[in-house]
Amino acid sequence: TNSIPAGFEIRRIESRDYAGVTTALSGLTTVGDLSQSQFDDILAYWDTQLLPGRTDGARSYNTSVIIESATGRVSAVGTVFVEKKLIHAGGLVGHIEDIAVNPDFRGKQLGKVLINHLSAQGASLGCYKVILDCDEKNVGFYEKCGYSRAGVEMQVRM
Amino acid sequence: TNSIPAGFEIRRIESRDYAGVTTALSGLTTVGDLSQSQFDDILAYWDTQLLPGRTDGARSYNTSVIIESATGRVSAVGTVFVEKKLIHAGGLVGHIEDIAVNPDFRGKQLGKVLINHLSAQGASLGCYKVILDCDEKNVGFYEKCGYSRAGVEMQVRM
Ligand SMILES: CC(=O)N[C@@H]1[C@@H](O)[C@H](O)[C@@H](COP(=O)(O)O)O[C@@H]1O
Ligand SMILES: CC(=O)N[C@@H]1[C@@H](O)[C@H](O)[C@@H](COP(=O)(O)O)O[C@@H]1O
């Protein structure tokens, strides 16, 4: 179940994914009023954020979509964001964020395929670890993806 | 206890903080072999990473040190990193990272002063929330800083 099912493909997010991505994300949390042009501006910003000291154009923000090939529909979306630290000799940490699977595409293991893809991307970018925060009810899913409990997420909301 | 104690000041990290910052961080985790010049390169990289669509030069990586004014010694260090998202109408999330207090300066509430500073910085940069991951044993400290439990941190190590 690590490989993408027949009829689906995975690639970096693009402008034409606007409707499908905002729909999928609205199953995770509040998306709010996000226009196509704001969406495009964020993708353009993400494209400019490069990791330091490399010549391969490796980026900090890596957002992928799983697309149903026949229709072009967005079935899942997620990000691995790479943070540059001082610790671990100037190490990199991958943060998996904003994972959403469109309910129409449940039961195809697309969530697991997406997490495996983002984790592998974090590894290939040189991260010493990849982390994420989730609800207690999703711990079992992430364990099946190779993750273990590491700590407590704390928040303050503005 | 929200204000900085007499004899201390707080400011953005600088090149001359190398020894004090690496010493403080080695109390948190592995720092490894990090030379002065690698340290400087990371600070220079952090300086280049700007938030999108603003004219105030607001940065993604905001690392602060608390300095003992009389000696210039680093008593504490920590970061609030700002992530640009699609959700929450293109919202910003602050990630507090790599908090360390030099053991010589314990008992002065510097940890709380630092967290309050970083949280306020996240708010003033426009974050809709600030989050962090910590050990179960530090939950009480972060609660005193105004944080609440939000979820489970999961990790995979490479
Ligand atoms: C693994 C995963 O997808 N975790 C997400 C996180 O990335 C997202 O940003 C947050 C939004 O919640 P919020 O709307 O309360 O900020 O929910 C979950 O923690
Ligand atoms: C609030 C705070 O300071 N949390 C830190 C985190 O920022 C740091 O990066 C990590 C290092 O641990 P590691 O060496 O196992 O990656 O420890 C803690 O989770």
TrEMBL record, chains A, B:
Q: In which pathway does it act?
A: Nucleotide-sugar biosynthesis; UDP-N-acetyl-alpha-D-glucosamine biosynthesis; N-acetyl-alpha-D-glucosamine 1-phosphate from alpha-D-glucosamine 6-phosphate (route I): step 1/2
List UniProt keywords, sorted A-Z. Answer: Acyltransferase, Transferase
Q: Which Gene3D superfamilies match?
A: 3.40.630.30
* InterPro entries attached to this UniProt entry: Acyl_CoA_acyltransferase, GNAT_dom, GNPNAT1-like
Locate the N-acetyltransferase domain: which residues? 29-158
This entry's Gene Ontology molecular function terms read:
glucosamine 6-phosphate N-acetyltransferase activity
Q: Which GO terms describe its biological process?
A: UDP-N-acetylglucosamine biosynthetic process
Kindly state which reaction or reactions the protein catalyses: D-glucosamine 6-phosphate + acetyl-CoA = N-acetyl-D-glucosamine 6-phosphate + CoA + H(+)
Q: What is its EC number?
A: 2.3.1.4
Q: Which CDD domains match?
A: NAT_SF
UniProt keyword NAD present: no
- Matches recorded under Pfam families: Acetyltransf_1
Q: Which family does it belong to?
A: Belongs to the acetyltransferase family. GNA1 subfamily.
Q: Which PANTHER family match?
A: GLUCOSAMINE 6-PHOSPHATE N-ACETYLTRANSFERASE (PTHR13355:SF11)
Task: State what protein this is by name.
Answer: Glucosamine 6-phosphate N-acetyltransferase
Record the organism.
Answer: Maudiozyma humilis
Organism lineage string? Eukaryota, Fungi, Dikarya, Ascomycota, Saccharomycotina
